[in-house]
Every structure is written in C-alpha cells, then in structure tokens.
Design brief:
Lipocalin; eight-stranded antiparallel beta barrel; 8 strands; Lipoprotein; 1 helix; signal; about 60% strand; about 150 residues; elongated; about 15% helix; mainly beta
Length: about 150
C-alpha cells in the first residue's frame, strides 16, 4: 500500500513539473507607426530567453519572427560552500544572468523586414513585465511600442 502511495506521489509530481515547464506566456503589445495603431502579439515559454513575435501593420502587412533576450553566462566559477547534504562540500556551478534588453528580427509577408530593440522593465520578468521598444523597417519606417 505504501509503494502505491509513493508511486502516485511521484506521478503527480512529475506531471506537475512537466506541466509547469510547458507553460507559455502570451500577450499583446500595441504600438504606433505614422500615428496609427500597430498590434504586436508575443509568445514565450516558461523560463525561456526567447519567444515568437507577430506584428500587424495598419495596412494589414504581417511580420513574424523571433525575439531573444540577452544573457551572459559563466562556466564553473561560482563557488558555494555547504550547498549539499554534506556541509563540508564545495559546489562549482555555471551561472547565467539575464539582461533587460532584447532584439528581434521579423520578416514581412510583402518583402520587408523589421529589426527591433526592446528595453524590459525587469530582466527577470522579461517581456511580461513590460517595457519600451523601437522597431525599424527595412525601408526606414519606425514603430514605437510601450508595454
């Protein structure tokens, strides 16, 4: 009976972890281009540094692509003492630090492209926590966003 309970707990725990990792964040950002409203939709996986963007211009032109949040990483140079069950242990860890800036490249369905630079309000919260951004189209047109 005890083994059945342990197995049930393990299955529930594993299912919860898989469900959490599969979570996505979706949202809408509105911007302005030449005085008209532009709609940008984003999709980002839980704990991901990147995601998908779709932007629709006032005339219906559609741009799709990817954004990437900057990060820096270090290999094995962070030392923590007593981080395991044996307090005499030393743990060498890799570490990653997210930036509050991101870049995007979007390709349009009418032959134009768009490069975007974003400044997020929070490095940890990323695009979900809001920020500001500017996108420049291949012909020089600009789109400004606040989210």
């Amino acid at each position: 009976m005890l083994n059945v309970k342990k197995s049930a707990v393990r299955v529930l725990l594993a299912t919860s972890i898989v469900g959490l990792l599969a979570c996505e964040s979706n949202g809408v950002i509105e911007g302005v281009s030449r005085g008209e409203v532009v709609r940008m939709e984003y999709q980002q996986g839980f704990m991901d540094n990147d995601g998908k963007l779709t932007l629709i211009m006032p005339g219906g032109e559609r741009f799709e692509g990817k954004f990437v949040q900057g990060s820096t990483s270090t290999d094995g140079d962070e030392i923590r003492i007593g981080e395991s069950s044996n307090d005499d242990s030393w743990v060498l860890m890799d570490s990653e630090q997210r930036s509050s800036s991101a870049k995007a490249l979007l390709l349009g369905d009418r032959g134009r492209s768009m490069k975007c630079n974003f400044q997020f309000s929070s490095a940890r919260g990323g695009i979900d926590d809001g920020g500001i951004g500017e996108c420049k189209l291949s012909d020089g047109e600009k789109v400004e966003v606040v989210f």
